[in-house]
Design brief:
The complex is a heterodimer. By secondary structure, chain A is mainly β. Chain A folds into three domains: about 80 residues, no CATH class; about 130 residues, Macroglobulin (MG2) domain (Immunoglobulin-like, Sandwich); about 100 residues, Immunoglobulin-like. In chain A, about 0% of the residues lie in helices and about 50% in strands. In chain A, the strands form seven sheets. A five-stranded mixed β-sheet of chain A has the order 10-16-15-12-13, with no helix packed on it. A five-stranded mixed β-sheet of chain A has the order 18-24-23-20-21, with no helix packed on it. Chain A is elongated. In chain B, strand 3 and strand 4 form a beta hairpin. The longest helix of chain B is centred in the first third of the chain and has 13 residues. In chain B, the strands form two sheets. In chain B, strands 5, 7, 8 and 9 form a four-stranded mixed β-sheet that branches. A three-stranded mixed β-sheet of chain B has the order 3-4-6, with no helix packed on it. By secondary structure, chain B is of the alpha/beta class. Chain B folds into two domains: about 30 residues, no CATH class; about 90 residues, no CATH class. Classes of the chains: A mainly beta, B alpha/beta. The interface between A and B is large, with 82 and 66 residues. Strand 24 of chain A pairs parallel with strand 1 of chain B, so a sheet runs across the interface.
Chain lengths: ~350, ~150
């Protein structure tokens, strides 16, 4: 059987390394026709963001569509961004991953290690007739997890991802999976960084030669943390405040993080005065680390008494306090002296 | 405003999450991971490079039907060359590259190339790239039907 399928090829850069603005990366869509021996390779030109119809007939064994981006340099380096399989009998599937980071407009959804996400799997074209081929009756849904280690994931080898779980879908419609938080492996759950990938594969009788119909992944970034040094809890500070060092790590890619001080004991939600040299607003693809050093902030203490310095980060997930320190400002001038008089004789 | 969550809190939430894994509501299976077996071959391994004057492109291996000996050095990627899509590269290099449209059956090796094309391959002095609907496509050697013998040739 051979049908003419109108396949919409959409080239959307699907990795942070492949910025649409970066001329060092070039996209290629390659169709591999699987029912010839050897397979045929056919390239379809598409713009960076665009689509066109595939005019090629879809054969029984189907075709695999691969979206690649290649980095120019001393030697070209290719990265596989996405794969889709289409055949005359294969069902269709789409996957949408929904996170709370709705302000993020990039092609890859993202979230944080402590936040929930939802996966919507839509399957259509499944058949249930007695004579229908096995591959048309059900599909396999797979969940892979993969840690980035200490990297930003740009050079990740996705063949090394761990298969977390898999299931069969044998009915057309939408399947929704809700996860309270990521299952990416990591000893410290606050520092997990990596991706969760959900894929739909064909399901043949013998479990071999199954082809990917669709695959989508969500990037998961760690929680930010901070430390304050230079001033310690309970320290008595005089006229000249000591050099303050604030180290922040893993700031969420889109966040505003600042250091503030206010009079009194630590109290969540207190609005203080921001130390200008210890704040950062970012909107980028990956987390950020910074070290801020502040020396001339003594004038921000308006009166003596107990004061608190704290580091706050604002993200789409809300405002969170990362670290704080409480100390005493004491600038009372104590003069120890003796008054004497003298008379001329 | 809240304090950031701790590792211990997240560990407990993860344990609860794993117990109520929504995948368990489907028909869970334990079969071999197809994602490892179905990985496509690397693009560079299935491509030929065309490179000239600081730019380069990739075409499927087997799509270059003719490469004159004096142009062979243009199949080497020149370090630092900027990769561009095929149509952009072709537009700038029509002086030494030409294309020929083939049918799917010809590309699949089920139909022989035309005599005119074979003559062009034999006598031409330009690089010839096979295309289907203007997209470069690999061309398998022609295999005549069984009764015609088993010799493979273009």
């Amino acid at each position: 059987m051979k049908t003419i399928a109108r396949i919409t090829l959409v080239a959307v850069l699907a990795a942070p390394l492949a910025s649409g603005q970066n001329p060092a990366y070039t996209n290629f869509i390659r169709q591999t026709v699987l029912d010839t021996s050897p397979p045929l390779y056919w390239d379809v030109s598409v713009p960076e963001n665009g689509e066109r119809l595939s005019p090629m007939a879809i054969n029984l064994a189907g075709s695999r569509y691969e979206l690649w981006t290649v980095k120019s340099g001393s030697a070209p380096q290719s990265y596989l961004l996405d794969v889709a399989y289409v055949s005359a009998y294969s069902p269709q599937a789409e996957i949408a991953i929904l996170t709370e980071d709705t302000e993020h407009t990039g092609p890859i959804p993202r979230t944080r290690a402590d936040r929930p996400f939802q996966v919507e799997v839509t399957v259509s074209g499944l058949l249930n007739g007695v004579l229908d081929p096995a591959a048309s009756k059900s599909v396999r849904l797979l969940r892979h997890v993969q840690s980035y280690g200490n990297t930003d994931g740009s050079d990740i080898d996705r063949t090394q991802a761990s298969l977390h779980s898999q299931a069969v879908i044998d009915k057309n419609g939408v399947t929704t999976l809700s996860y309270p938080l990521t299952g990416i492996p990591g000893a410290n759950r606050t520092q997990v960084r990596g991706e969760e990938r959900f894929s739909v594969f064909t399901r043949n009788n013998d479990g071999t030669n199954d082809q990917q119909i669709v695959s989508r992944y969500v990037q998961v970034w760690p929680l930010a943390d901070a430390s304050i040094s230079g001033i310690t809890d309970g320290q008595r500070v005089g006229f000249k405040a000591p050099t303050l060092t604030v180290s922040v790590n893993n700031l969420y890619p889109s966040s505003y993080t600042y250091t503030q001080l206010y009079k009194g004991a630590p109290a969540l939600g207190t609005e203080g005065v921001v130390i200008p040299s210890a704040q950062l607003q970012i909107d980028q693809a990956t987390p950020e680390d910074r070290v801020w050093t502040s020396q001339n902030y003594s004038s921000l203490f308006t009166e003596d008494g107990q004061w608190t310095i704290e580091v706050i980060t604002n993200t789409v997930f809300g405002s969170e306090r990362l670290a704080y320190v409480t100390f005493d400002i004491d600038r009372t001038l104590e003069v120890n002296g003796m008054v004497t008089t003298s008379e001329d004789s | 405003m809240r304090d950031t969550v701790t590792h211990e809190q997240l560990s407990q939430r993860l344990r609860m999450s794993e117990q109520s894994d929504p995948m368990k509501e489907l028909q869970v299976i334990e079969e071999e991971d197809p994602a490892k077996a179905a990985q496509p071959e690397d693009l560079m391994a299935t491509s030929e490079v065309l490179s000239f004057n600081g730019i380069a492109t990739l075409v499927p291996k087997g799509s270059v039907l003719k490469m004159p000996a004096n142009l062979k050095n243009r199949t080497n990627y020149q370090a630092g060359a900027r990769l561009v899509p095929w149509n952009e590269f072709f537009a700038l290099n029509r002086g030494w590259i030409t294309t020929t449209e083939v049918t799917f059956e010809q590309a699949a090796g089920r139909e022989a190339l035309s005599d005119a094309l074979r003559k062009q391959i034999d006598e031409g002095f330009q690089v010839i790239v096979a295309t289907l609907r203007q997209g470069p496509i690999s061309v398998n050697p022609y295999t005549p039907p069984e009764e015609g013998g088993t010799t493979a040739s273009r």
